[in-house]
């Protein structure tokens, strides 16, 4: 049987966190990061994952305050977590559009040293000029150019990681000096994106290179992952969709001389647990209504309609007017806006759903934005996770709790032991590096 890989996602800029829960805490205070990371480590998860927010989202010209507001620097948090964890991998999203290879490679090599080989890098590209306004590199690149730059960025970073071979410096204690090879850390790279040369300042780290993760779902993103990534995030948590994604990405590996085992596919997943399946379903409905309050429903509606709908009653019917087609001027910094490639067709689908089920605006949004992957008793959830992995709908899951920082506790205490009893999840870490956790050595 396949061994299951599990990771813990610290919720970042999102509207799925239930702030009304008495156990909900800060997304800024370090204690929240520590709690979630240490819980995941106690449960023997592969890695803790921190997403990135380079600019706070806005809607109608104001910060979208129904999301989590505020995002600390990824490297700072991961470096601090390296001191309070021992075995769990520490991965973060770092953008290849607005950063430079030397800086990012130096930071990840340092993190890999600080954590004794537990660093992972989720490589992403930026798609909008709105985010670019925070950086010297303003504007945005077309999708094909974004992935071209990202792949070149990756190759350049690898040259920097590999500029040290591990034996360049030898301590001569008799003379009190260090002896180094002439080419220690030397690098030179010249292409249309980067024109750099010099010496890399960080000796080879325990993993050599950080584990590379990627999250693109487009054809370019899938190809980029097949060529360069060690793991790819997926948004397909159902059997049929998961298997289709799994098969498509894995078949691309051969053209790059890679085997199926060299790329792990990890869908993002949410979960709701209960004493019984019925209890979990009831709890899931309560959570969905907490996640999508009246104002949140209107904000989501505005993102599709591309107009101010603040005068509408969230408990009333969908607008009779159609969405404004063209550039979205209402919502800034939201990836979901890009998903509405045909707003008029999506609006028709929502109207048909509302009419068929007699749903209000809020009830429609609750249905169309549902993200609860696993709902049931611990035994049911453990069985569902195992069934999907064994059926090649994924190699594991990245779990996103709806309460921070304690939302993973129940899963760690109830579901993980059942997976361990089945023999499909580790009871102890076998290795010390993230690459070993993922079986990539």
From TrEMBL:
Taxonomic lineage of the native organism: Bacteria, Bacillati, Actinomycetota, Actinomycetes, Pseudonocardiales
Gene3D superfamilies registered for this protein in UniProt: Luciferase-like domain
Pfam family, one: Bac_luciferase
Residues annotated as domain Luciferase-like: 18-391
Residues that span the membrane, as ranges: none
Keyword annotations from UniProtKB, A to Z: Flavoprotein, FMN, Monooxygenase, Oxidoreductase
Name assigned to this protein: FMN-dependent oxidoreductase (Nitrilotriacetate monooxygenase family)
Family from the record: Belongs to the NtaA/SnaA/DszA monooxygenase family.
GO molecular function, one term: monooxygenase activity
């Amino acid at each position: 049987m396949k061994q299951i890989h599990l990771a813990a996602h610290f919720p970042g800029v999102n509207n799925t966190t239930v702030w009304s829960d008495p156990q909900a805490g800060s997304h800024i205070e370090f204690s929240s990061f520590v709690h979630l990371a240490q819980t995941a480590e106690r449960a023997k998860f592969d890695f803790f994952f921190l997403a990135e927010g380079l600019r706070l989202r806005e809607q109608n010209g104001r910060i979208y305050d129904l999301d989590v507001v505020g995002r600390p620097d990824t490297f700072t948090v991961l470096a601090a977590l390296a001191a309070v964890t021992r075995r769990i991998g520490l991965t973060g999203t770092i953008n290849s559009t607005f950063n430079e290879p030397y800086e990012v490679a130096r930071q990840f090599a340092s993190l890999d040293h600080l954590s004794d080989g537990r660093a992972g890098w989720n490589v992403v590209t930026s798609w909008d000029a709105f985010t670019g306004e925070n950086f010297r590199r303003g504007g945005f690149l077309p999708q094909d150019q974004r992935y071209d730059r990202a792949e070149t960025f990756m190759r350049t970073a690898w040259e920097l990681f590999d500029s040290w071979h591990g034996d360049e410096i030898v301590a001569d204690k008799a003379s009190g000096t260090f002896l180094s090879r002439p080419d220690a850390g030397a690098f030179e790279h010249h292409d249309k994106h980067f024109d750099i040369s010099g010496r890399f300042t960080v000796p080879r780290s325990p993993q050599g290179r950080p584990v590379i993760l990627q999250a693109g779902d487009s054809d370019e993103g899938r190809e980029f992952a097949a060529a360069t990534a060690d793991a790819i995030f997926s948004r397909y948590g159902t059997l049929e969709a998961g298997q289709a994604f799994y098969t498509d990405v894995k078949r691309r590996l051969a053209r790059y001389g890679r085997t199926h085992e060299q790329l792990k596919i990890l869908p993002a997943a949410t979960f709701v647990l209960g004493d019984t399946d019925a209890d979990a379903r009831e709890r899931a409905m309560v959570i969905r209504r907490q996640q999508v309050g009246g104002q949140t429903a209107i904000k989501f509606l505005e993102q599709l309609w591309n107009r101010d709908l603040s005068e509408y009653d969230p408990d009333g019917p969908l607008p009779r007017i159609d969405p404004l087609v063209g550039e979205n001027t209402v919502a800034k910094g939201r990836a979901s806006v890009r998903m509405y490639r045909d707003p008029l067709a999506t609006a028709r689908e929502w109207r048909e759903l509302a009419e068929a089920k007699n749903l209000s605006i809020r009830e429609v949004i609750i249905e169309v934005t549902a993200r609860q992957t696993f709902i049931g008793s611990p035994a049911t959830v453990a069985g569902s996770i195992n069934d999907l992995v064994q059926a090649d709908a994924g190699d594991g899951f990245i779990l996103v709790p709806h309460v921070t920082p304690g939302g993973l506790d129940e899963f760690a205490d109830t579901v993980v032991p059942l997976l361990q009893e089945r023999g499909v999840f580790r009871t102890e870490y076998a290795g010390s590096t993230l690459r070993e956790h993922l079986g990539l050595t």
